[in-house]
Amino acid sequence: MKKKILTLPVFLLALALGGAAQADGDPASGFKVFKKCGACHKIKPGQPSQVGPNLHGLFGREAGTGDFGRYSEAMKASDVVWTEETLAAWLRDPRGFIPGNKMAFPGLKKEEDVRDLIAFLKRATR
């Protein structure tokens, strides 16, 4: 009986930690999602911008700033700083989040893809 009492808290802790890890997203799955983005965006420092800006150093950066010369006026005037929360809103609906921006991508429909992509970008763009 005593053993069951000791293992129940461990089981509950494992469940809680497993749920937290899943809520943060899976970077490996996020890499697969990024393949949709990689045609236009690069993530390594010094890689030339293609259709969209290089995402290296994305978190904490103000939208519409960086070495990319073709930001829309809407993006430059947005006063958005890229955090997990703002990026999640952007990834779900770029046109709705910053109306008038130039990004043609319609957004990600699956919340899991949003979480996974953010987890990947947090690691890959440092």
UniProtKB/TrEMBL annotation:
Gene3D superfamilies cross-referenced by the UniProt entry: Cytochrome c-like domain
Database matches in InterPro entries: Cyt_c-like_dom, Cyt_c-like_dom_sf, Cyt_c_1A/1B
Protein keywords: Electron transport, Heme, Iron, Metal-binding, Signal, Transport
Any one GO molecular function term: heme binding
Signal peptide: 1-23
Statement: the UniProt record of this protein carries the keyword Hydrolase: no
UniProt superkingdom: Bacteria
The keyword Membrane is assigned to this record: no
Domain named Cytochrome c: residues: 25-125
Pfam families associated with the record: Cytochrom_C
Protein name, UniProt field: Cytochrome c family protein
Source organism per UniProt: Minwuia thermotolerans
Taxonomic lineage of the native organism: Bacteria, Pseudomonadati, Pseudomonadota, Alphaproteobacteria, Minwuiales
